[in-house]
Amino acid sequence: MDTKGKTEDERSLIRASADVGVNGPDSADSAVTVKGSKDATHSFVYVLAFFSALGGFLFGYDTGVVSGAMLLLKREMNLSTLWQELLVSSTVGAAALSALAGGYLNGLYGRRVCILLASFIFTIGGILLSVCPDKEVLLLGRLTIGLGIGIASMTVPVYIAEVSPPHLRGQLVTLNTLFITGGQFIASIVDGAFSYLHHDGWRYMLGLSVVPAVLQFLGFLFLPESPRWLLQKGLTQKAWQVLSKIRGTAHVDEEYDAIKTSIEQEGSGGGGPVLCRILSNPPVRRALIVGCGLQMFQQLSGINTVMYYSATILQMAGVRDDKMAIWLAAGTAGTNFVFTLLGVWLVERVGRRRLTLGSIVGTAISLAVLAVGFLLSAQSSPPVSSHPIGQVLNSSCTQYRFCEPCMLDPECGFCYRENGTSSFDTSCVSVNPVSTAEAAWGRCNNGSQETSGTFWAYNYCPTRYSWIVLLGLLLYLASFAPGMGPMPWTINSEIYPLWARSTGNACSAGVNWTCNLLVSLTFLHVAEYLTYYGAFFLYSGLSLLGFLFIFSCLPETKGQRLEDIEALFAERLCTCGSPGASHRHYIRPQMELAKTQYGSLEQNTAVSYITVSMANTHYRATA
Ligand SMILES: O[C@H]1[C@H](O)[C@@H](O)[C@H](O)[C@@H](O)[C@H]1O
C-alpha cells in the first residue's frame, strides 16, 4: 500500500486497517507475518545474529567445560570437595547476580555496550583462568566468567529480537540457544581431547574461551546498536539509519513508524524504578510471571543434572572406561545440540506455544522413564557379600548391606566381580578422596581392571535395567532440547514492551540462574533422601506442573511485531490458552490505538472505522 504523501496519522490508520485484517480474523497475525516475509531478508541481520550468539556460545562453553577441567584440576591443585563445589557454583551464582545488574546496564548504556562489556569480561576471565597460579585466582577467574555469562545471557536474546524482522525473530533468537548447546558440545570435545594431557590440560580447556570472546569484541566494535533502544533514547536519525542498514533498504518507514508510535504510546509505564512500574502494570506483570515461570520450569526439569549425570548413566549402561565415558558424555552434549537445531527449524513452523507444550510433556514422560529405570535398578540392587578386613573402622561404608545405599553415600563406592550379567564377591569401600575413579584402598584401588575381572562403580550400581535409564536419557534430550531448552529465552526476548524489556529479561534470566544453582546444589542431597528414582520422579512432577502453567498462561507470539505482543497479556492470565483468545487480544489494542489516535479528531470516526473493520473481519468475539 502506498503511504507516500500521507500524514503520520493517516499512515497509522492504513497500517491499523491492514493489521486488523481485511481478510478475516484468522489472518490477524499472519497479516504481520506476511508483511515481514515480503521483505527480502538482508543478510546483515544474520551477521548480527551470529556475532551476538557468540555470547551464547561462551555461556555454553564456560558452563560445560568445567566438569572435564575439574577432573584434572582436583588432582593437580589437590582440591577438596568444597573447593570443587565452589569453583562450579561460583560461576552460576555470579551469573545470577550479573544478569540482574545487566537489566540496569542495558537500559542505561544499550545492548551493544553490554555485549562489548560481556565479551571483554569473558576475555579477562579466560586469561585469568589460563595463567592462574593457585586456586584463589582460579576462583576469581570463575567468578569473572560468571559475570560475563549473566550479562550475555540476558542481553543477547534481547538484541537479536530487536534487530530481527518478525517472521525470522523466533528462529534467530533460538539460534542463540543453539550456540549455547553448541558451546557445551565443543567444550565436551575439548575436555575429551585435553584429558590426556595430565599436566596443565585444564589451562587449555578453560583458556580457549578467549578466542570467541575476542572475536565477538572485535565484531561488535563495528556492529550497530539496536534501533529500538536508539529510538527509545530519542536518537531518531541514528535509529532510522541503523534500521535501514539492517534491513538493507531505505523503505523502512512502516517499521520505523510502528516502533516510534508504540514508544510514544506506551511511554515509560509511569515513574519510579522499572521493576515497580512492571509490577503495577497488569499486562506487563503477567508477562513477567510467564517469563520467570518459563525460566523456572526450564531449570526445575533438571536439564543440568541430567547433562551432568549423563557420564554416570552411561557407566551404568556398561561403559566402564573413564575416557570412554567422557567421550560418550560428549555424545550427550552433541545430542542436546542436534535436537536444539530441530527447535530452530520448528519454532516458526509450529509456533512457540505448541513447541513448548509438546516439549515439556515429553520431558515429563522421559523423566518418569529415567525414574522407573532407576527404581528397577534400585530394586535389583546387588547385596554386599564381603566386608574386607582393613576397612577403616569409622568409615560409613561398612554399614551397608546393598549396593544402592552404598552408592548413594558420596564417601563410598561398590567393588565387585562379574559373572555374565550378575555380580559376586562384592564390597562397599571408601572412595579415594583425590579421584572417584578408584577406591581408597584394596583390590579396587586401581579403579576397574578388566584383566583381574574386578570392577569399581562409583555413583551407580551394576544393573540389567540400565537400558531403560539410557532410553530415558535419549528421550529426555530429544524432547527437552527443541522446546524447553530454547523457548524460555526466545519468549522472554519478545513479551515485554520496550520500556520493560531489559528489566524483564534481567529478572527472568536471574530466576533461571538462581534455579540452576538451586537444582545443582541440592541434587545430591535430594538423591540421598529420595534416592535417584525419587529425585527424577520429583523433576517429572515439577515438569507436569510446568505443563499446566504453560498451558494456561502462555500465548502464541509467533509472527507478531514486538510492539503488538504486550496486548496478548491484556486479559486474565489463565485465558491465554483458550481458543480465539489471541484474536480477541490482538484486535483490542488496535481499537485502543485508533481511539487514541482519532479520539482527538472525531470520536465517531474512530468508532465507525472500527465497526467497518470488524464487519470486514467477521469479528465474532466481544471486544
Ligand atoms: O537453554 C539452556 C540450554 O538448554 C542448556 O543446555 C542448559 O545448560 C541451560 O541451563 C539452559 O538455560
Task: Report what the structure shows.
This protein is mainly alpha-helical and 623 residues long. Residues 1-40 and 579-623 have low confidence and may be disordered. The two termini are 27 Å apart. It has 3 domains: 41-223, Up-down Bundle (Growth Hormone, Chain: A); 277-380 and 463-573, Growth Hormone, Chain: A (Up-down Bundle); 382-462, no CATH class. Helices cover 70% and strands 3% of the residues. The protein has helices at residues 8-20, 28-38, 44-64, 66-76, 81-109, 111-131, 135-163, 166-194, 201-207, 210-222, 227-232, 236-247, 253-266, 274-279, 282-300, 303-316, 322-350, 352-379, 403-408, 466-484, 487-492, 498-553, 562-565, 581-599, 603-616, and strands spanning 412-419, 422-430, 454-457. It is elongated and about 80 Å long. Strands 2-1-3 form a 3-stranded antiparallel beta sheet. A hairpin with a 2-residue loop joins strand 1 and strand 2 (422-430). 1,2,3,4,5,6-hexahydroxy-cyclohexane (INS) binds at residues 177, 180-181, 184, 298, 303-304, 336, 485-486, 489, 512, 516.
